[in-house]
Amino acid sequence: MPTIPPPGDLSELKSLASPPKVVMQVFSALLALLGHKKGDAEDWKFAKKQLASVGDQKINSQMAKFDPKPLTPAKVKYVQEKIAALSAESVRKVSAAATSYYVWVKETVSSLPSELTAEQPTEQAAQQ
Predict the structure, then answer these.
(1) Which residue intervals define the domain Dynein heavy chain coiled coil stalk in the entry (predicted)?
(2) What ranges in 1-128 are assigned the alpha helix state H?
(3) In tens digits, what is the pLDDT along the chain, a chain of 128 residues?
(4) Could you give the CA distance from residue 128 to residue 117 in angstroms, rounded to a whole number?
(5) Rounded distance, CA 87 to CA 48, Å?
């Protein structure tokens, strides 16, 4: 299981009023992977609410309890597309705090069952 990012990274990211594109790509991928709809995953205000959640709803808690069962191949493809052009180094250059979330997404996607990572049409299922 990938390592959960430290709380300090969360605090830094919550303080961003308008994140750089790379940070938004990482969080769109993360939120989609955690089961949120594409529209919500691409909304920074929604992401900030998730970052500010407490208890079991806290984003790090959701990551720790991650269950791939509800994922569809289309949702996974959406996540893969969001992070395809990124690397840990490219994310780190923009935001050290977002790097640990990127690494978690990347490692999580690479450990998914092959039936979820097979090529499938994206748009309709990614809306789920």
Answers:
(1) 9-109
(2) 7-14, 21-33, 38-41, 44-52, 59-64, 73-83, 88-94, 96-110, 114-117, 123-126
(3) 677 777 777 778 888 888 999 999 999 999 999 999 999 999 999 998 888 886 656 888 889 999 988 899 999 999 999 999 999 999 999 999 999 999 999 999 999 888 887 654 444 444 54
(4) 17
(5) 23
Both structure tokens of 98: 């977002």
For residue 88, give both structure tokens.
Answer: 């840990």
Q: What are phi and psi of 65, to 5 degrees?
A: -100, 15
